[in-house]
Design a protein that fits this description.
The complex is a heterodimer of chains A (322) and B (262).
Chain A: E1 2-18, E2 24-40, E3 44-48, H1 55-63, E4 70-75, H2 84-88, E5 91-95, H3 107-117, H4 122-136, H5 151-163, E6 169-173, H6 181-197, E7 201-205, H7 209-215, E8 218-223, E9 226-232, H8 233-239, E10 244-250, E11 263-269, E12 274-279, H9 285-295, E13 298-304, H10 308-320
Parallel strand pairs in A: 3-7, 3-8, 5-6, 6-7
Antiparallel strand pairs in A: 1-2, 1-4, 8-9, 10-12, 10-13, 11-12
Helix pairs in contact in A: 5-6
Chain B: H1 2-15, H2 18-45, H3 54-75, H4 81-87, H5 90-94, H6 100-107, H7 114-130, H8 137-163, H9 173-187, H10 195-205, H11 212-219, H12 235-256
Helix pairs in contact in B: 1-6, 2-3, 2-7, 3-7, 3-8, 3-11, 8-9, 8-12
């Protein structure tokens, strides 16, 4: 079953630029520029992109906050803006910067209020709350006013708040931003368990690629309002040629450079005594190492696995260069 | 109902700052006192105002003051929409399964303004007792319905002016001009205003129905400007129209919401 479906989705903003005394030029900027996206029930999708790429704007159009300038969008079979209140009952939203909780009231009160807002039967509500309390360790700060919570505690509260009505789809905008390591891990473990249960479709935006590596099998990369990659992490590596690296320390510089298929020298340091090789996709490090042992006295050796940050950074810069 | 719970939560939140609440309630009563004092002061220098005596204008002022204070208590804080739009906090209201306007109103009700409402009601009782009229059941009904209809008209103006923030975040003073300015306008007989001003505020916005026409009906006086007498009873109908117009404007505004920031 397709839960999220969008095609040709576009959002334009009119930006007024001051161009002199009292004079303003208006310019139309497309924050989201024709996106097609289809997410099946139970999928967990990471939605990433640099600042201003259109991640949040997309999420807001999917949740009924923003009215699309053009294109079709359906979530749970509903049109987000015209059927906003009906959709709201079936989705959960965590916008990292915009709290769903009541600032001056204890966390417990916010949960009780949300039960009334979403008209959730008391037993269902109690069951879900008990589940979240256990998995997210809420008990220690359930009676503390939200304004006094740490960011990590508040985020765990926000997650609970978004799930108490049993949503079919969970939208998370930067759920781990600004969290310390322990809180990050708590949030990730919780989301991983939620995703593994398979009932909830999850779409999350993030800048922390560890979130993606840990959670999402599918990765959608957006840049300048367009989707530039939609597939698995491995596909991303394959497509954008992420390479493993072999760093070797030698006693003496090589007499002559080594030539092997699929191997390039990335950098040379310390007068040729430290060399970094880049290995294409399937090239085995073994061949290179045995050739090196023959050619020179090998002192130290280390292999660096491809880094997702590098791949994505390369992806962004490639898109940015016209 | 969900809104009732939201309202209760807001009252509890504000009760957390007890001292501040007490000061605010007192301050809000003072606003009501000022409404009345300005009328008293005016009549120290003139025996009639636009053809009306003190008792009559006092009744108008009390009706207007009651209506305004009630609207201010219930929806006055809708002007905070500006902050919600600027900070993007309005998003949080839109992802809930309730009306955004009703949530904003329920979540921001200003408990402190209760003082002004209570004072307004006391003044209305005094003004009704002091006015040259016999208290029949019909008059009593009109005296009850009029402040409610007036509150709805003021409420519509509050909402309509707040809606400007969806298009133009640096709005503010225009809104105050229509709301607080509207209170001053409705306190006095519309006969004292110039024709253009009167057409705009009394008829187009509907401020004449807050206190002026109902007072004429209460006092059995014909309108010096020649308006038909049934207008004295038309306030509820006008109020409903104003509320519907404000609601439509709000819906249009929400579609223009830009949700700034990430």
């Amino acid at each position: 079953m397709t839960v999220i479906e969008a095609s040709g989705l576009r959002k334009e903003f009119t930006v007024r630029v001051k161009s002199g005394w009292l004079r303003r030029r208006t310019r139309i900027v497309a924050a989201v520029d024709g996106i097609a996206l289809s997410v099946e029930r139970g999928e967990m999708v990471g939605y990433i992109g640099p600042n201003g790429a259109g991640k949040s704007t997309t999420l807001k159009m999917l949740t009924g906050v923003l009215y699309p300038s053009a294109g079709q969008v359906r979530v749970c079979g509903l049109e987000p803006v015209p059927q906003r209140t009906r959709l709201a009952l079936r989705i959960g939203v965590v916008f990292g910067q915009r709290s769903q909780l009541w600032w001056d009231l204890p966390l417990r009160d916010s949960f009780a209020l949300l039960r009334h807002v979403y008209a959730v039967p008391a037993t269902e509500h109690a069951g879900r709350l008990a589940h979240c309390r256990r998995l997210l360790d809420l008990d220690a700060f359930l009676d503390v006013p939200v304004r006094q919570l740490s960011l990590g505690q508040r985020m765990r509260g926000e997650l609970t708040a978004a799930l108490l009505h049993g949503p079919e789809v969970l939208f998370l905008d930067e759920p781990t931003i600004g969290l310390d390591l322990v809180s990050k891990q708590a949030v990730r473990a919780f989301l991983a368990a939620l995703g593994a249960a398979g009932d909830t479709t999850i779409l999350l935006t993030t800048h922390d690629l560890a979130d993606i590596e840990r959670l999402c099998r599918r990765l959608v990369v957006i840049d300048q309002g367009r989707i530039v990659h939609d597939g698995s992490l491995d596909e991303l590596h394959a497509r954008y040629g992420s390479r493993r690296r072999l760093v070797v320390d030698l006693d003496e510089p090589l007499a002559a450079p080594l030539a092997l298929p699929g191997v390039t020298v990335e950098s040379t340091q310390a007068n040729g005594r430290r060399i970094t090789y880049a290995l294409d996709g399937t090239t085995a490090a073994g061949d290179l190492v045995s050739r090196l042992v023959e050619a020179a006295a090998l002192r130290d050796i280390s292999v660096l696995e491809p880094d997702i940050e590098d791949v994505v950074a390369r992806l962004y810069t490639r898109q940015a260069a016209p | 109902m969900a809104y009732r719970h939201l309202l209760a939560a807001q009252v509890r939140s504000q009760a957390q700052y007890r001292a501040s609440l007490a000061v605010d309630v007192t301050g809000s009563v003072l606003f009501g006192v000022l409404d009345i004092v300005s009328v008293v002061v005016l009549f120290r220098v003139t025996p009639t105002l636009g053809g009306f005596g003190f008792a009559e204008v006092f009744l108008m002022t009390a009706l207007a003051s009651c209506a305004f204070a009630t609207a201010d208590l219930m929806v006055g804080n809708v002007e905070r929409l500006r902050q919600y739009v600027r900070s993007g906090l309005f998003d949080a209201l839109l992802v809930r399964p309730l009306s955004s306007l009703a949530q904003l109103v329920a979540m921001d009700v200003a408990t402190r303004r209760v003082g002004r409402v209570a004072f307004g009601v006391v003044m209305l009782v005094l003004a009704a007792a002091n006015a040259p009229m016999e208290l029949t059941l019909a008059r009593l009904a009109l005296l009850t319905v009029t402040p409610i209809a007036g509150a709805l008209i003021f409420g519509a103006v509050f909402v309509a002016t707040a809606t400007v923030a969806f298009w133009w975040i640096e709005s503010g003073e225009i809104a105050n001009g229509l709301t607080y300015g509207g209170l001053n306008f409705t306190q006095y007989p519309i006969t004292i205003y110039g024709a253009l001003f009167r057409r705009l505020f009394a008829y187009a916005v509907g401020f004449a129905f807050v206190a002026y026409y109902p007072t004429l009906a209460l006092l059995d006086r014909p309108d010096p400007l020649g308006a038909p007498t049934f207008l004295g009873y038309a306030a509820p109908a006008v109020a409903v129209m104003a509320a519907v117009a404000a609601g439509l404007l709000w819906q249009t505004g929400v579609r223009h919401y830009r949700s700034t920031g990430s």
